[in-house]
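RESIDUES AND SHAPES:
===
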Amino acid sequence: MTSTGKADLPPFFGLNPEKAATALGQPVDTARFAKAATFAARGREELARNGHAPDGRKRLRLFSTWEVCRYLIPVNPAHFRRVLKAHPDLPQGKGDGNSKWFSLEEVMALRDHFATEGAKDREYRPWRPQGLDAKILAVANFKGGVGKTSTCAHLAMSAALDGYRVLVIDLDSQGSLTSIMGGRVEDEWQTAFPLLARDFALHVEAENRVREAAGTPPLPLDETLTEALKVSPRNLIQPTHWPNIDLLGAQLNLYWAEFQVPVWRMQERSWPLWDALTNSLSGTGMLQDYDLVFIDTPPALGYLTINALAAADILLIPLGASFLEFDSTGRFFDMLYSTFASIEDGENRVRARDGLPEVRFEWDAVRTLVTRFDAAQQTELANVIHAYFGDLMTTFRQDLTAMIGQAGEQVNGIYEADYREFNRDTYVRGRETFDRTWAEVKELILGAWWRDAEAARAEGDHDGE
């Protein structure tokens, strides 16, 4: 209230157009965008270096005896210390007295020892059936800001801490997952782009062999396609500061794939563009090199996302407990149906004509998961969302904690945060929200692997009859 007793007017009343024009400044041309991008690049590099080693590389922190025994190796701390004392050849950690700290490489070596010498009823290594391919998990939603990248990163880190060999693939040209994993990507030729180009080039080469036999002119291979044929997919993979996580990174120029892929498809309509990433992973044996592959997708249902979803065994769809995100995710499901049903219909008409079996898209599991959850304000709406999505929802909701917010500010995952920067209860709560999400996702993975193993065993028994 003012001294006259009248209420103050809202700030959008009484604005002076002449003063507004003076404050407006000169019109902005495209060169100003370049200047802003340059400044942002400098700032991004500076912020990304926070907490890094002097050489600018990320380093994974050490893990205390308390963490190792609580989260990584199911063993009593006193027994853990006795085992180290009895086996001086094992990693002994750094530090004095009972306060020892271990690298993840050392934890992995200790895990191997306990798996061989420890109690038979303990799970020192995660289960993974022999002879089966890695499971591919895609994290997708065409609405931004739903926690897609952080969910993908934390699940990958959870799996790595659990003992799995992990490959993370960043298909979002914003490159946020690449930044979290400390990756360096110079241009599109260090991203998934050459994998898509190589798949199309191989398709053109196969088509040209058919054309040569029929005496018809070959399809041209331009400079991009010729260069892509020289690319070894494995050479695009870079190690990260995690000893058991590798990365196929992204950067801005990856977005050009969204323009180039439809051009290739128009040139050769028989090219199954949605299988390009699948072919690159399975055709090169990379699915035997890793246990799990996590793919972060762009916030759009474009050609890169379609490739990720077609390659995936398990689809995870993060969303916040709000009406807009619920509405957007429902429309995302509608678009998924329209897109993949359209591909199936179009392909199967051709296949029926040629006497080939039908193509059918199928996923081991699809789950939506609530992220950034505030139980005090969002429980009722989250329950409503759960009621509508039913068995397509995970039961646990990821709480938003101070630890999660701080980790995001430092371009880190919460598993990379040193618990000494918080009180221990805060750290435990922060971890729990992703540990419980990982538990549900891991159960999906194990169930899918078990089903695959049983199917392979049944097929083997049938072939042996």
Q: What stands out?
A: The chain is about 50% helix and 10% strand.
